[in-house]
Amino acid sequence: MNPLRAATRILFVLSLLISDLHADPRPERTIPDGSDTRDRFLKLIARPQVPLAPNERTPSSTDGLTEIGFDFAAEANQRVPGLMIKPSSSPESVKRPVVIVLHGTGSDKLAMKPWLKKIAAEGLNAVAFDARHSGERATFGKGSDAYRAALFETWKSGRDFPFLYDTVWDLMRLIDYLQTRPDVDPERIAAIGFSKGGTELYLAAAADPRLVASVSCIGVQSFEWALENQAWHSRIATIQSAVEGAATDAGLSSVDTAFVRRFYRRVAPGLDHEFDGPRMLPLIAPRPLLVIIGDRDDRTPRAGVELCISAAKVAYRQQQAEDQFEFLVQENVGHAVTPQSEKYALEWLKKQLKSPQAHKR
């Protein structure tokens, strides 16, 4: 075994052992099947269906890889621009597995190109798209500026869900589009997401079983735990101007826990309770799931993440799929993904998508 991968595996096993040592000794509670939660979440984020009406740019090829730009309609007034990179040797009629890559706050699809190239070099199709108010969809300034402005507008109007939920919908529509392509195996669609993208991914995977394997990087968290334990400040700092603007609009001079809860419930209803991490991760079982965190990440506090992991473990155990769930803790790492973890995640995705079982999930 490669020494780097062996070291990562040892780190992963140790993290599981430590987690088990601190497990709740009380009898295990049965996790409900979650169908009601899934149905309510889907109803909340649903939009009127419109034709995809896809457009595809002229492909270009370099270094054995082909790049294809595209866009499609997610809803009546929203077109989603995306980028696919795939092996040039792949005939159009060959259906290959695909990995979707979701970017974080302030990033965009072009920033994900290094990941797309690595994935395509392994013989897989790779796709990224601009989340709302990011990349080509940013109406002004940097993507993060437009994103925060959209959050403030939602606070005032109650329309749209730019905080996570809108992108979940766009991801589901992207899957609709990918399943129409002759070069995509519709039964082998996986995804990896980073930070905000990691949160959007586990919400989408909980809602949409067409994602056969998922890697959530530095995105799994319990919003409810953070509120109850005064640990929300680092997460809110990523959208600070929107929250402060909303507080001022509400006649407050400062932001406190009660107002953050109120803000969440306005811009992403249920995020701090019904659709929180400990309730959504179990809905992904028994499909393969890899969760990667940093043990010093203030945006995803370890104690809150452990609630999510414990709930997921119960669900996977009850479905006799313990081997389909992995939890990798990066020691002495903050809100980042190390090269070792990136390499492990790519190998994990390859294994899941090239396994014969991928067709049966």
Q: What portion of residues belong to β-strands?
A: 15-25%
Radius of gyration: 20 Å
Q: Could you give the distance between the termini? A: 28 Å
The secondary-structure class comes to alpha/beta
**CATH C-level name:** Alpha Beta
The CATH level-2 architecture is identified as 3-Layer(aba) Sandwich
At a glance:
The chain contains 13 helices and ten strands. The protein has helices at residues 3-21, 35-45, 113-121, 143-157, 165-178, 196-207, 223-228, 233-237, 240-249, 257-267, 277-280, 302-318, 339-354; strands spanning 55-56, 60-62, 65-75, 78-87, 96-102, 125-129, 184-194, 211-217, 289-294, 325-330.
Q: In terms of topology, how is this protein built?
A:
Blueprint: H1 3-21, H2 35-45, E1 55-56, E2 60-62, E3 65-75, E4 78-87, E5 96-102, H3 113-121, E6 125-129, H4 143-157, H5 165-178, E7 184-194, H6 196-207, E8 211-217, H7 223-228, H8 233-237, H9 240-249, H10 257-267, H11 277-280, E9 289-294, H12 302-318, E10 325-330, H13 339-354
Parallel strand pairs: 5-6, 5-7, 7-8, 8-9, 9-10
Antiparallel strand pairs: 1-3, 2-3, 3-4, 4-6
